[in-house]
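Problem: given the chain below (623 residues), write out its structure.
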Amino acid sequence: MTTTQRLTLSQALVKHLAALKVEMHDGSIQPYCGGVFTIFGHGNVAGFGEALWAERQALPTYRAHNEQGMAHAAIAYSKAHMRQRIMAVSTSIGPGATNLVTAAAVAHVNRLPVLLLPGDTFASRAPDPVLQQVESFQQGDLSANDCFRPVTRFFDRITRPEQILTALPRAIQIMTDPAACGPVCLALPQDIQTHAFDCPESFLHPELIQFRRPPPDARELQKAVALLKTAKQPLIVAGGGVLYSHAGEALRAFAEAHGVPVVESHGGKSSLAWDHPLNLGAIGVDGAPNANVLAREADVVFAVGTRLQDFTTGSHALFANARLLSLNVQSFDASKWSGTALVADALVGLQALSAALGTWAADSAWTARAQQQAALWNARVTELTTAAPQPGVLPYDAEVIGAVRDSLNDAGGDSGVHDVAICAAGTLPAELHKLWRASRPGNYHMEYGYSCMGYEIAGGLGVKLARPEQEVIVLVGDGSYMMMNSELATSVMLGKKIIVVVLDNRGYGCIQRLQTASGSPAFNNLLDDCIGEGGEASSIDFALHARSMGADSVHVANVAELKAAMVKARAATRSQVLVIDTTHTRTTEGGCWWEVAIPEVSARSEVLDAHARYVAGKQEQRV
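Solution.
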């Protein structure tokens, strides 16, 4: 006979989450859900809120200041845990729910798990239309939460309490599936949240979560071996799948055994230590010049755990002459661009492929050249990030990155192990991709799948929740800071110290450069170009703003002051904000062609010239 408890939908859901445990890659057992971020409203406070209060010791509840921000924090938490742990996010109906949609898209594009639990309108429809209800003239069962359908891996609207018995395990199955992993949404009508049912005791004691590692198909493995054995100048592209599979050591062993150089996408950076002799560094549109040169000459590109985004492939022009082998747990990614697919877990796939290759190795001259180029680029990074300041010239991102990095040495620490750098949008991703040095997996945390402005500070909070033992450093431009900064106050409230370095270049400098490179005049990007009739020049005191939210803050005058301020910030216990004026006109060399469509017709000769370059670039694309 089945033993049951009389529980509401919300109580059963929360108790199940609180009881869930996961076996981590190191064999330790941890709670699968690290807590619930919520902003209460009329659509979730009475039902779901009551259940959270009852289980607050087993499942922590965190209050945030913005629904999108708290979802970004939850997503960053999962990314910092290499997708092995999650956080849940609860909102009211209406704007609380739709504020999550952008964050859901961030998780969807980046293949990251997050459990979204927005409140919904009344299933009974008795009080319709309720406050904040979006009414459809054509579909009576439509609500604002239907916006989540295209940006989640799994969506369900719970209309009877017992449906949670199947809906929640399905959602968790998606989030723990290495191939299908992504955001899930369970919409919870506010009346159904409070309805009771006889919940089986077994639902309240779920089985331990253990992640599967799919092995390669024997025939696909044979084809992959045959392809690699034809290569003289192979190149490995390490993607995020290497990190999520905890395959960094297997990648290092493969590269060393077979003499294959490695380049890193944004998602894969930190898979291999920055100073490994075979690590050429960043690849692609914002890649290191040395890495991109070898990429153009490679005869086989071995893509491991990457979805081959256009920034990685130079809009599919960078590897145009190479044959492609893709090892990926997701067949959708492994089969892109008519390459040879090896569908498997990255760690298992690398080990199986290496064993099957035996003594095969890349041409020794190619390996030696790659090692030489890696050393040359590392020396150049040191030169760029430690350059003496030029009198009267604003610093640029490279010099800021160097000061942030080296400040830990001044504070007596090891910058290669301790710091986690967080970023998402603007010029900084390109500079960090090329210049940040990470010796430990996850010490480079870049949201560059959706490149969502505003992710940075909230993401820093999520990383700090996941990795409290590390210094979490958010590097953010003034534009992204203005987009979303409220979770800075949350970090202070929760006692989760982060260091935020704001680079103020007076507007959207990255897009202004793209605009002028496309032949258009500077327009509507830099703040000084946007003053309306009767308006005034923008004057934003970021340091003062940060202090108003409880953080310690200072506006430094130069790179030397920034470095000194960073030493003090490291010793502090409260969140710190350091602001420095920078220029958007200087950038680090490197990169490659990127497809940005240019108008065929224009009155500007500069646009026509840019269009001609665009047409020429398309001739190099892989077809």
